[in-house]
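tl;dr need the bound structure. longer version: we got a ligand (S-adenosylmethionine) that a collaborator sent over and nobodys looked at where it sits. i said id run it. heres the input, straight from their email, havent touched it
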Amino acid sequence: MSSQRSRATPFLKWAGGKQRLLTQFEPFFPETIDTYLEPFLGGGAVFFYIYQHFQPSRVILSDLNEELINCYEVVRDDVHPLIERLQHHKENHSREYYYRVRGMQVADLSPLERAARLIFLNKTCFNGLYRVNSKGKFNVPFGKYKNPPICDQDNLIAVSEILQNVEIHLRDFGDCVQDAGERCFVYLDPPYHPLSVTANFTSYTRHPFAIEEQQRLARVFADLTAQGAYVMESNSDCAEIRSLYQDYRLETVQASRAINSRGDRRGPISELLILNY
Ligand SMILES: C[S@@+](CC[C@H](N)C(=O)[O-])C[C@H]1O[C@@H](n2cnc3c(N)ncnc32)[C@H](O)[C@@H]1O
């Protein structure tokens, strides 16, 4: 294993990020992984873990969030100019500057500037929460951090090196079926089905993830199973999801709610792992 493989860690903080669940996931991963697919990439915590522990020969990552996928592509293809842009953001960081950058129209920016903007906002916004409104605009307020890690140069370079070896696509999760074959490993981490009406955080993209999407995902899970892939999915532990996957192995892990503005809702909570093996 090269040193780069073990050094790279997620460069974005993402709602629903799995970094803190990895040790609980460990016993459930297959013994070996040759081809790895992650169609709800987000911050990629599971990808970074799998890449360094299993050394898969083929990796296919995708997500439907355009800003996110552009950012991965720029980290892969243009990391040094990106670092320069981030240094510039770092030098100018202030509340006023944050709102100026947040207010920029992404359509007017180059892919490089869009990637730097996303990383800058992600590191400096309230709670590191990526959230967009119905028009697809990033709408999180300023976060009062003393010294936010706007430009983690070493990690960005390490990430860029490992991304040279992976395929990255902007696409819907349903499209991963075409790439999945026998014995490949697919990890599905969709926006969770909400446990209550008020707990409705589903806005990673401008496309909402309602129950119909959960049902469509369950059909994709079945298609992947029929193709001989090993599939592991994370979702909320609730009656609707348990019923959708009643024919599969269901395990639970204990998560803490990392992103919740209400302190009284921060206790541990059971989440489902759905496995077809
Ligand atoms: C729970 S997050 C993934 C978190 C990630 N595993 C991590 O550790 O950071 C869910 C992701 O699904 C993406 N997404 C939402 N709808 C999608 C769709 N229809 N197809 C593909 N990705 C989608 C969102 O953009 C978001 O990045």
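gonna send this back to them w/ a short note. The first strand starts at residue 35 and ends at 38.
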